[in-house]
Amino acid sequence: MIRQAQKFLDKLELDRTGRPGRSALLANDDRIVGTGADDLCQLGHELLERLNVVAVALVEPALPFADFLIRKAGRAESCLVPRDTETRTFLHDIPFVRHQELATQPADQLARLLGNRKGILVEGLGIIATGAVTPEQAYINVSSIFHSVFVKYLLDILGEKSLSAEEQLALADFQKNWLKPLASDIAFAPAGTLDERAHILDEICRIGRETVRLGLVDSFFGNISLRHQETIYISQTAASLDELEGCIDPVPIDNSSTCGITASSELLAHQKVYAQTGARTLLHGHPKFAVIMSMICETAECPITDCWKDCPHVRQVGTIPIVAGEVGAGGLAERIAPVIGEPGAVMVFGHGVFAIGRDGFRDALAAMIATEEWCRNEYFRRLEANG
Ligand SMILES: [Zn+2]
Ligand SMILES: [Zn+2]
Questions:
Q1: Partner of 263 for a Cys bridge, out of 130, 188, 267, 330, CB 3.0 to 4.6 A?
Q2: Residue 304 Cα, ligand 2 centroid: separation in angstroms?
Q3: Mean pLDDT along residues 117-143
C-alpha cells in the first residue's frame, strides 16, 4: 500500500499538479501508512482515523487558482460549481473552506465536510481528496479537482475587467514556468505496418504514455483506439492512459456484440467515427485550453440553458468545430462523426478533443496538439485584449 501511495504521490508532482514537496498521500491498510510532507501527513492521519475510506491525499496545488476562486466567491457560497463535463459527471461541485473558517484543530471539521465527497478545497492548504478503496482513486480525485479548478478559473477571468496584481503575477509565472511547449518527438508506426496484434497493442500503449506526458489528459480520463480491419482495439474505461498494458479490448467495428463492457464509455463515438470516416486511429483527451475555449458560447442571448448537451449547432473556433452532447448514448457520438473527417479534430463542449489519424497515430496526435496549441494561443490573446 505504501508503494501505491508513493507511486501516485510521485505522479502528482510529475504532472505538475502538486507543488514539489508539498503533498502527502496516506492509506489505511490495517494500520495507517503514508508518505509526503510531515505536516500534511499529520493532518492526513487524523482524517483517515475519522473517515471510512482507504486513502486520503493532501496536495498544495502548483497553481494558486483555487485560492483565487475561493476569495472571489460570494459570502454565502460554500462550494465551487465548475461547468465542465468532468465536474458535471464526476465531481458535481467542489465544497471549500475559507482560511478564516478553518478551525485550529481542523480534523473534525474537514472530515465532516469530506463525508462521502470525492474531495474539497481548503484555502491556503489546497486539495484534500479521498480514495474509497485505493490510493489511485485519491490521486484521480485530486487530478480531477485540479483540472476543474484550472478550467473554471481561467474561463472566469476572461469575463473579468481587471485582475489583482497578485493574480497578474501568478498568471505570468504560470505562462512562463508551468506551461510547457506541446512538442512530441516520438517515432510513430505507419498504419500500414500495424497489422499484428502485439504490435498494435504496443503502439497504443506508447501513444497513451505520450498523451499523458504532454498533459493532454488528466488522471484516467481519455481514451485511445486503433482500427484494424473489422476490429477496434480500444482502451478500457477507467484505464490510465500511461499504463494501458493489459487494458485494451478488441471490439467489433459494428455494434453487433456486447463484449465491450469494459471498453471505454466513449466506444460508441469511436465506432461511429470509424464507420463514417476512413480513419485508422482515434485519440480522445481533455486538453485544458481546448476545454476552456469550447465553453465560450458567443451567441447573444443564447436561448439554450444547457449548451453543453443541448446546443444543436456545430460552432467553430478557428478551424476547429465544436459540438455538444453527453457521453455514451447522449448524443455526443452522433454529433462527432459527421464533422471530424475534414478537419481531423473536433472539440466537445466543456469536455475535450477527439482527433483522428489516417496513417497511424502520427496525424491524430498532431491534430490534438495543434488544437490545444491554437486554443492556448487564442486564450491568451483574448485575455490580453481584455486587460
Ligand atoms: Zn472524455
Ligand atoms: Zn449557447
A1: 267
A2: 5
A3: 95
Which cell is 333 given? 457520438
Q: Read off the pLDDT of each residue in 84-89 and give the average, rounded to a whole number.
A: 74
What is the 245 CA–ligand 2 centroid distance (Å)? 40
For residues 138 and 140, give the distance between their C-alpha atoms in angstroms, rounded to a whole number: 5
Report the alpha-carbon distance of residue 14 to residue 18 in Å, rounded.
8
C-alpha of residue 308 to centroid of ligand 1, in Å: 13
> For residue 162, which amino acid is it?
S
pLDDT in tens, 214-233: 999 876 688 999 999 999 99
From ligand 2's centre to the CA of 153, what distance in Å?
Answer: 20
Rounded-to-10 torsion of CA 144, 149, 151, 153: 180
Crossing angle for the helix pair 38-50 and 107-114, to the nearest 10 degrees: 60
Cell numbers given for 341: 473527417
Q: Which three cell numbers stand for residue 179?
A: 506551461
Residue 143 has a CB neighbour count (10 Å cut-off) of 26
With a cut of 90, say whether residue 313 has pLDDT above it.
no
| Mean per-residue pLDDT of the chain | 91
pTM for this entry = 0.93
Give CA–CA dist 209/217, Å, rounded: 10
pLDDT of residue 259: 56
Phi and psi at 36, nearest 5°, equal: 130, -165
- Looking at the CA of 144, which ligand is closest? 1
Q: Which amino acid is at 318?
A: G
Strand ranges inside the chain, DSSP E: 18-29, 31-36, 55-61, 79-80, 94-97, 119-122, 126-131, 223-228, 231-235, 248-252, 281-285, 315-317, 320-323, 345-348, 352-357
Mean pLDDT, range 10-24, rounded to an integer: 95
Pairing of strands 248-252, 231-235: antiparallel
CA-nearest of 320, 28, 361 to 194 is 361
Statement: residue 205 has pLDDT above 60: yes
- Show the cell assigned to 68: 483565487
Q: Tell me, in angstroms, the distance from the centre of ligand 1 to residue 351's CA.
A: 6
What is the Cβ-side half-sphere exposure of residue 134, based on CA atoms within 13 angstroms?
A: 8
